[in-house]
Design brief:
This is FAD-binding oxidoreductase. The chain contains 15 helices and 19 strands. The chain has helices at about 15, 40-50, 105-110, 130-135, 145, 180-185, 220-230, 245-250, 275-290, 305-315, 315-320, 340-355, 380-400, 425-435, 450-465, and strands at about 10, 35, 55-60, 75-80, 85-90, 95-100, 115-120, 155-160, 165-170, 195-200, 205, 210-215, 240-245, 265-275, 295-300, 325-330, 335, 360-365, 370-375. The chain is globular, with a radius of gyration of 22 Å. The protein starts with 8 loop residues before the first strand and ends with a helix. The protein binds flavin-adenine dinucleotide.
């Protein structure tokens, strides 16, 4: 309290409830306190103090994470960055902006769009999540297919290390800095190597033209094939999204219904952007690919209002599951695009095995799947079944040559599943790096890497499943 003042610390039980978890609600823990910081110096002083008393701590942005990264396991101090929310500097001539970590993603685009610029990484949570949280999770989004994920847009970071030292990574105007790529290492490190206190990002010029297509399919395999065919035709859309019938049922019952036909198996939402002159040719090619793959109906958004509605319908897709299920678990696997039909069939088998519906929303263009396991936590045993079903979906992705996370991170949720894709030696090489930065494991302990107990349990379950 001496560092930040009494009104910037929460410690009463009733105040701490809101900080027991992030958007992944299956695991909860009570923090010791929540401290709201206003500047880098305060972060550094608090970290030094917590080190001296050996109390663990966690950085937290908006708490929209979906893997438990900002969730305390019990007794940590949460350092909340949400009041460090200034746009510090705009340099449009050199196409960059400097923000504090609590700056909300969407605000950046909103504050520069009238000048003809935008910030490309657009997680569907962009109206709430912070750029600090995006850096920690290396967040993606619908438009990352063409423009790349957060790491491709970060030019520099200021970081408070777990010993309280403040360092600057990356530097304005110096390309190809020699030495290790610490900027790359910190981005996506899920708040385990340091606390980000300032971020320099690239901003892009608004594309000259943009067109959006909606394609309805009777067979999900045809939709999947169209995705592959669009990319192999050499077209890189700005976004190439897909939803299956269960997901469509959810979005149509929620806040932004589009009026999608009720009986389709899937739709594709495809957006192309760039130099105005080339857009119509690309759209023609896409329409041809869709037709060659037995599309039932395909249409181009007639105006900006229609385009915005299609995107609102897609971007609120996770929350919309609340309209058809009391609870849902968001998964986040990656697969090679060409394996989509086979992986979807296997996810269907997982759904049957556990007796739980699974809706699928995907960034299909880059093979990033979000199976959403629908369940009712009030039914005894259903939460556990949902967790197991989610884990098996990730195993299906890993076995197809993919990964256990595309953008939501590992956090608590998928730490055991790291074994699906890494050997013990590979995990150790990563935990060794964490130990260099975070030797006492006081910063965000118990996250990202397997904890021995749960791992052994998961391995046993897998063996059993294989034997069946
Ligand atoms: C409806 C919904 C849709 C979503 N859609 C997407 C999507 O399309 N793409 C996507 O990538 N994600 C998506 N997410 C997940 C989430 O929004 C992102 O992971 C986001 O980057 C988290 O930001 P946050 O500010 O909420 O971070 P938090 O949840 O507060 O924290 C996330 C992690 O970052 C660490 N952290 C936070 N701030 C800092 C900091 N300053 N320094 C160091 N570590 C820090 C925390 O310790 C934690 O480990 C979605 C979430 C929801 C609820």
């Amino acid at each position: 309290m001496k560092i930040v003042g009494e009104k910037d610390v929460l410690y009463l039980k009733e105040d701490l409830v809101a900080y027991e978890c992030d958007g992944y609600t299956m695991t909860k823990g009570t923090p010791k306190a929540v401290v709201f910081v206003k500047n880098t110096e305060q972060v550094s002083q608090i970290v030094k103090y917590l080190n001296s008393v050996k109390v663990p701590y966690i950085a937290r942005g908006a708490g929209t994470g979906l893997s438990g990264g900002a969730t305390p396991l019990g007794g940590e101090v949460i350092i909340s960055l949400v009041r460090m929310k200034k746009l510090l500097h705009l340099d449009l001539e050199n196409r960059k902006a400097v923000v504090e970590p609590g700056y909300v993603n969407l605000k950046l685009t909103q504050s520069i769009s009238d000048k003809g610029y935008y910030y490309a990484p657009d997680p569907s949570s962009q109206y709430a999540c912070t750029i600090g949280g995006n850096v920690a999770e290396n967040a993606g989004g619908a438009h990352c297919l063409k423009y790349g994920v957060t790491t491709n847009h970060i030019l520099g970071l200021e970081v408070v290390l777990p010993n309280g030292d403040i360092i600057q990574l990356g530097e304005e105007g110096i390309p190809d800095r020699p030495g290790y790529d610490l900027l790359g290492l910190l981005t996506g490190s899920e708040g385990t190597l340091g606390i980000v206190t300032k971020i320099t990002v690239k901003v892009l010029k608004n594309p000259e033209g943009k067109k959006t297509v909606l394609a309805y399919y009777d067979d999900i395999n045809d939709a999947s094939q169209a995705v592959s065919d669009i990319i192999s035709a050499g077209i890189i859309p700005a976004a190439l999204e897909m939803m299956d019938s269960t997901a469509i049922e959810g979005v149509e019952a929620a806040a932004f219904p589009v009026g999608h036909p009720k009986d389709i198996a899937a739709f594709l939402l495809i957006e192309v952007d760039g130099i105005a002159a080339g857009i119509d040719d690309q759209i023609e090619e896409i329409l041809t690919v869709c037709k060659n793959n037995n599309v039932r109906e395909v249409k181009v958004a007639k105006d900006e209002a229609e385009r915005a509605l299609w995107w609102a319908n897609r971007k609120t897709g996770f929350g919309a599951m609340g309209a058809i299920s009391p609870d849902y678990l968001v998964q986040d696997g990656v697969i090679p695009r060409t394996r989509l039909p086979e992986v979807l069939a296997k996810i269907g088998e997982v759904s049957k095995k556990y007796g739980l519906r699974i809706a699928n929303i995907f960034h299909a263009g880059d093979g990033n799947l979000h199976p959403l396991v629908l369940f009712d936590a009030r039914v005894p045993g259903e939460s556990e079944r949902a967790s197991k079903a989610g884990s098996e979906c990730l195993k299906v992705c890993a076995d197809a040559g993919g990964s256990i996370t595309g953008e939501h991170g590992v956090g608590i949720e998928k730490s055991a599943e790291m074994r699906f894709i890494f050997t013990d030696e590979e995990i150790e090489s990563q935990t060794n790096i964490r130990s260099v930065f975070n030797p006492e494991d006081l910063l965000n302990p118990g996250k990202l890497f397997p904890q021995p107990g749960r791992c052994a349990e998961i391995k046993q379950e897998l063996k059993k499943a294989e034997a069946q």
